[in-house]
Amino acid sequence: MLELQFLGGAGTVTGSKFLLTYNEHRILIDCGLFQGLKALRLRNWEMLPVDPKSISCVILTHAHIDHSGYLPRLLNDGFQGPVYSTAATRDLCKILLPDCGYLMEEEASYLNQRKKTKHDPALPLFTREQGEKATEAFETLPFKKETEILPGVRIEFLYAGHILGAASVIVTAGDQRIAFTGDIGRPEDPILFPPEPLPAADFLVTESTYGNRRHKKLAAIDELELQINKALKRGGTILIPTFAVGRAQFIMYLLWKLRSENRIPNFPMFLNSPMATNVNDLLAKHKDLHKLSTHECAEVCNIVQYVRSPEESIALNKRTDPKLIISASGMISGGRILHHIKAFGPLESTTILLTGYQAAGTRGEALQNGAEELKIHGSYVPIKAHVEILDNVSAHADYREIIDWLKHSKIKPKKTFIVHGEASASDEIRRRLNEELGWECLIPEPLQTICLSP
Known about the structure:
Helix content is 31%, strand content 21%. By secondary structure, it is an alpha/beta fold.
């Protein structure tokens, strides 16, 4: 028996969880948190429809929280098996999961102190300690080496770009092979290598984040130069909400290039994200996974001033000089960026640069759609800042890049399952895959179970 159930990532971009059942073995590919709309976030508090104790193992495609962030809950609810990942994904999760738990504890404490919660008391989904505990379950595997993880089940990681350590996962169960793309990187990323072509497989599970969009032709570095120089003429603060893993390092790389080429003036630039600060060290550790030399890694990481303590972060909000602040999270769903938005969002001189995809229901999406106020920590903050979108810094391949990548792969699946996308994006790439490649595609419903047995 071979079945695939879509516990998350179906009909939405977040919460990726794909349960593969082979005979008596249950294998969970990705274990992510739902983000964005409240109805989705509430699903993080629900018990899984399968007993966590019955899951044999977890396989992670990469470290982003919408693919890894449910692990502490899964272990707390009884999961006892190994978590397989690449070494870089393991190292990133050692930073991300405890930090995510810490931010949840910090937000719950903040709400309780100010009585800004309907719950008595507000509780974190998981704690920092639980995040640290989850990383003890990891077992790392190299790229491009097939490994038997269960009787009759073998897996192989293939380089996927997107972020450090990200992989597509090829699962062979009996005589059936299923390819999970994970999140697919871009073919011409200046830091990461192009994604590795997929081998032949019977079934494909592919992301569709940008399934109905093309990235702009304007190069990311030119777009950022334009926005920074325009913002500096206003004389205010430039806020760049960004993901601590991948996106923050990419923005810093672009800033380094712009400063090196004298395309932007010398003015204060800060990285206010403890998580991103720690992630920067991993660039040098895993130098075989990207294009930067050791010297370039050091130069990129030193282009900003590091804000390390809460006191330094508070002091930054009191500065009135022109400056640039990079801070997590990219969709403005938590972290120190919330305090910067509260301080600088009401000022017309401020510029907020959104970096890539904004999930439905997030503050980032609200700003993208022209919101004049944001609810932060239980109160509404007026937004008079200029909001701009740096679309071309996304780490996700667009639909053309995905289809071209698949065309250059050996895969010709019997059926393709389209996940990790809003409804319109998934449907558009479904149509294109059918028309251009002749593939049979299905957009699964949440919790839908598909029999893959011949």
